[in-house]
Design a protein that fits this description.
This protein is mainly α. The chain contains twelve helices and no strands.
Amino acid sequence: MSSLSLAVRDSTTMLRRNLLHARRYPSLTLNLLLTPVMLLLLFVYIFGGAMSGGAGRDAYIAYIVPGILMMTIGSTVVGTAVSVSMDMSEGIIARFRTMAIHRGSVLFGHVVGSVMQSVASVVLVGAVGVAIGFRSTDATALEWLAAFGLLVLFALALTWIAVGMGLVSPNAEAASNNAMPLILLPLISSAFVPLDSMPGWFQPIAEYQPFTPAIETLRGLLLGTEIGHNGWLAVAWSIGLAVLGYFWAAKKFNSDPK
């Protein structure tokens, strides 16, 4: 059997392990999933009238749902950081190191499993958005496919960053705290209000962080708004974060003595 076949086989085994682990302990995923759902309902039904600027609740639902979908990815991958940290601190990784398995399969199992959970979470939150009135009637099949590809790419990027955070954390609590920026960054993006409503000194911070270009690109694909330079910024951020997270995680995993 070739080394590639062994890597695929072992990665598939690790993926199955992580999915079974997530199924047996669903509380972490549910807790992380409730955050974007509650924010969606809170901003639509409590703050929506004030924050819509007179455009109406339906217009604000259309505006906020793409931001909440991206925030869902950030929330979901926090569980990945916690899961990786638990594996490292509980000794199971030390046992894997003594077995004849592909070394990178442990990380790839976490990454693929996390991306699958992120996509499932986005679908569930998107269903809530549709239930309360979100519609994307103008998007073509190609735009829907591009939107799905963007969500998967962004999930992959944040997952690798979360894996790195989990590897450098001494325990699950620290991993959860270290990964909090992945939840907080969408709060200072264009997810809830347009950039031009923010103070002038703060607009560049909100505009060029990873979440805002991804959110604006998703809005453009689903709602037909102007994408402009946000499309290539979103792809650049996603690829850059994925590469950075991969090399960070691989270096830490390969050098960790535990």
